[in-house]
């Protein structure tokens, strides 16, 4: 499967899944259960588990980049990472409010960097990188 086709499939399937479409991923009960899991296995074990789960997700992403899409495996690993990240948040008492502020700031900063480093193509009005500033977009016929 070529890279563009895999990307298209992943985007369409990921979009349909709606993992962050306002759906509350962790309920109060699931947070209570995660606290019990941390208490049972211990902080160090769960921090190590988080590292292991992130590594497994990295492996699946590498497979995708080589043109092999296992969407179910990626979803499984994303779920495992989200679970262990939620445990990390519980361990370090990181609130939703604190994380939301950091996330919003990081997104805003990235968008500002994109805006500063990209310019509209004079003919197609698509955004192109700085190296193309003042020229038309190479992706289209009107070079």
List its salient traits.
mainly alpha; 143 residues; 2 strands; two-stranded antiparallel sheet; extended
Gist?
The protein is mainly alpha-helical.
Mean pLDDT: 80
Strand content: under 5%
Residue runs with pLDDT of under 50 for 5 or more positions:
14-19, 130-136
Rg, alpha carbons: 20 Å
Number of helices: 5
The helix/strand class is: mainly alpha
Order of strands, widest sheet: 1-2
Coarse shape = extended
Task: Measure the end-to-end span.
Answer: 30 Å
Largest sheet: 2 strands, antiparallel
Please give the domain count: 2
What is the succession of H and E elements? HHHHHEE
Q: Total number of β-strand segments?
A: 2
Share of residues in helices: 55-70%
What does this structure look like?
The protein is mostly helical and 143 residues long. The chain folds into 2 domains: 3-94; 96-143, no CATH class. It contains 5 helices and 2 strands, in the order αααααββ. It has a two-stranded antiparallel sheet with strand order 1-2. A hairpin with a 6-residue loop joins β1 and β2 (127-129). The longest helix has 23 residues, at 43-65. The protein is extended, with a radius of gyration of 20 Å. The protein starts with a helix and ends in a 14-residue tail after the last strand.
């Amino acid at each position: 499967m070529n890279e563009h086709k895999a990307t298209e499939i992943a985007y369409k399937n990921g979009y349909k899944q709606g993992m962050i479409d306002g759906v509350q991923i962790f309920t109060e009960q699931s947070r209570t259960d995660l606290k019990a899991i941390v208490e049972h296995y211990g902080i160090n074990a769960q921090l190590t588990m988080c590292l292991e789960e992130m590594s497994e997700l990295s492996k699946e992403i590498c497979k995708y980049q080589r043109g092999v899409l296992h969407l179910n495996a990626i979803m499984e690993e994303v779920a495992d990472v989200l679970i262990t990240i939620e445990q990390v948040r519980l361990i370090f008492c990181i609130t939703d409010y604190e994380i939301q502020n950091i996330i919003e700031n990081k997104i805003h900063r990235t968008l500002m960097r994109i805006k500063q480093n990209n310019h509209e193509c004079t003919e197609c009005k698509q955004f192109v990188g700085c190296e193309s500033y003042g020229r038309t977009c190479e992706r289209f016929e009107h070079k």
